[in-house]
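Reader question, answered in our methods column.
A reader sent in the components of a multi-part assembly and asked whether the whole thing could be modeled at once rather than chain by chain. We filled in our standard form and ran it. Here is what they sent:
COMPLEX SIZE: four components
ENTRIES:
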Amino acid sequence: MFSEKGVDATAIEDITERADVGKGTFYRHFGNKEAVVVALSESAVSRLIDSTKPAKPPESLEAALEHLLNAHCAFYKEHAEEFLLLFQGRLLLKLQKEAADVDPSFAGYLKELGQHVAAFAPQPVPDAKIRRLAAALAGYPFLHFALVKPSAAAEEIETVVQPLRRSIVAGLVALLSR
Amino acid sequence: MFSEKGVDATAIEDITERADVGKGTFYRHFGNKEAVVVALSESAVSRLIDSTKPAKPPESLEAALEHLLNAHCAFYKEHAEEFLLLFQGRLLLKLQKEAADVDPSFAGYLKELGQHVAAFAPQPVPDAKIRRLAAALAGYPFLHFALVKPSAAAEEIETVVQPLRRSIVAGLVALLSR
DNA sequence: TTCTTTCTTGACTTTTTGGTCTTTTATGAC
DNA sequence: GTCATAAAAGACCAAAAAGTCAAGAAAGAA
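And here is the structure of the entire assembly that came back:
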């Protein structure tokens, strides 16, 4: 319902009606609507983090970044609504600004991203750069699926998307090693 | 206020208080909150459209697309909050799906985009492709400003962003002339 | 200045929503 | 089968938000 009509526009009664439970039951599980959002976000973030875990450790920063981009794209493909719920609204803007007030579940995600690239960075990567990496990872799937249909043939996808991904990786490498 | 705390979280009284007018005055101008959103969107869309008008007609589809990308990026840079208000939430998702229910002010924007590329297309471009062009234009600024700070030197921006823009243009050309 | 018309105000009513609490129903131990 | 404990339900209350309207202020014409 959150991705259908938005979090704020969804009333608790909407939720309990669709879930076919009484209101009391809802409040037995969640203190308020925000708690539901947090639970959903945590679940989505944890699955997103899981899906970024590489099968074998990457050889280079480029490989690590490419893997991250692909993982986010795959997650978007499978769970577009949840992805949007996460990165929706002002979060993308916040990520680019200095805003330090990202919610806790997201802080864990940023930390995880930091670990993906830490091995290849000469010195610890500052938080601001990790946030911009996150913004790029959030923005990439939109571009990706604007250029190629999810249903397109694998080869066609690669020919169109490879240059795009390469240029983003190159930009991120420049950002992270600057 | 909408971009500060979100549309739904903003009460009419919040608006009238900050505008320092009575509630009755508000309802003399707008039927409800949604009408304000529509008015703001229309204003933003019309300015965005204006800013996409090229000084001289482009020579090629590539040039036209590059111009559009740059214009959207510039608009985002100047009016990030409004840009986000427009493309926020589920619109990006809608653009990629078959969803035909975009609001009227946005329909005008899509039509305008169609005219930018019409001259270079062999046959009329289907709406679905225009929508994907719009999704790419909406997504691009996020990538752009993730890779380079708005305050960065012009040369640095170009070296990082040019490959990115090129690959997007190439992808869009493939999409539109397929 | 005075009268008419239009605009503005904010107290008031209504509607919606969040959150509570008692009653009822299910579960499981003995 | 009975009792104790936990869970579910939804009527209920309270707060907040939307929306109305009669009284007063401002503007303009004569």
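What stands out: Residues 21-25, 28 of chain B lie near DNA strand C (CB under 10 Å from a C1'). Chain B touches chain A at residues 3, 6-9, 80-81, 84, 88-90, 92-93, 95-96, 132-133, 135-136, 138-140, 142-143, 145-148, 160-161, 163-164, 166-168, 170-172, 174-175 (CB under 8 Å).
Send us your own complexes using the same form.
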